Amino acid sequence: MLEGKVAVVTGASRGIGRAIAMxxxxxxxxxxxxxxxSEARAQEVKQSIExxxxxxxxxxxxxxxxxxxxxxxxAVIEKLGRVDILVNNAGITKDGLLMKxxxxxxxxxxxxxxxxxxxxxRFVSRQMxxxxxxxxxxxxxVTGVMGNAGQANYAASKAGVIGLTKSVAxxxxxxxxxxxxxxxxxxxxxxxxxxSDTVKxxxxxxxxxxxxxxxxxxxxxxxFFASEEAAYITGxxxxxxxxxxx
Length: 246
Ligand code: NAP
Description:
Radius of gyration: 17 Å
Strand order of the largest sheet: 3-2-1-4-5-6-7
Strand content: 15-25%
Bound molecules: NADP nicotinamide-adenine-dinucleotide phosphate
Structural class: alpha/beta
Number of strands: 7
Order of helices and strands: EHEHEHEHEHHEHHHE
Distance between the termini: 31 Å
C-alpha cells in the first residue's frame, strides 16, 4: 500500500514512534527511524523491520535544533530521494506544578514537542511542495485538548501542536499535502511506565474503555492518515484515548 514511499518518523527508537515505524514499513514504506540519543534501540527497530522484510534507515537528529533539522532532511533527501510521509512523534515530559516549574523544564518541553514539530515541517515542506504531495502527521496529546494539572508545559506544547497543524494544513492544502494530528490518551510506553500505581488507577477511572491503550492503537491511526484513503482529510485532530476526551 505504501510501496515506493519514504516515511520519516521522529523519535522512533521506542514506544509509539517505534510502533508507527514498524507499521509503515509493514505496508511497504522505506522508513527513516529518527532518534536523538538511543542509537542502539534505533538499530534494534531497524533490525526488526528488516527481519519482517521491510526497509529502514536510522538517522540521528535532535529535533529541537533548527540547523540540525535542516541538515537531517538534506541528508534524508540525498539518501532516499524524497519524503512522502513525516510523522512528528518525538516528545518529552518534564512534569511539575506550575508554581515550582523551572524555566529550563518549560523550555525543554516546548523546544522538543512544539518547536521540534515546527522545525521538521519547515524543512520537509520544501520537498513536499516540489512533489506536490505529502502527508504530515503530528503527535499531540489528550492533555493538549483537556489540560492536566502538573503538565502546564506539556499541555501548552501539545495544544500548540494542534494550532500549528491547522495553520499548516491551510497553507499546504492547495499543493496536495495533508496535515493532521493525533491526540493519544494514556498509552503503555516508557513515558507512562513511570507513573505511580495511584496515578495509573485514577487515570484508568477517567477512561470509558477502562484501560490504557497500546502503541499499535496509535500506529493504526497514523497509517490511516498516511494512506491514500485519507486524501480528503486535513487539519483534523483524532483522539485515540479510549473515549477520555469525548
Ligand atoms: P517515549 O517512549 O518516551 O519515546 C520518546 C521518543 O522520542 C524516543 O524515541 C526518543 O528518542 C525521542 N526523542 C525525545 N527527544 C527527542 C529529540 N530532541 N529529538 C529526537 N528524538 C527525540 O514516548 P512515547 O510514549 O512513545 O511518546 C511518543 C509521542 O506520543 C510523544 O510526542 C508523546 O508526547 C506522545 N504521547 C504519548 C502518550 C503516552 O501515553 N505514551 C500520550 C499522548 C501523547 P531518544 O531516546 O533517542 O532521545
